[in-house]
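#structure-requests
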Amino acid sequence: MEYRRELAREVGAVHAFELLTESEARELLELFRTARANEVRALRRAIDAALTAMPVPLRKLTRKIIFGA
């Protein structure tokens, strides 16, 4: 698999990626994806914590206003 190409597609073209071995590119890609997943989880936790600080009747409405639907 072309991990350097996949990494460039995921992050954007960075000249330094061409200098990485496939093994290094694979490891960096895995780290990047793990970091992104952790960021999403942390953001969800922060949003839930902020909404739980609100009175119960306002939570659903506030979620709709912030996220739509």
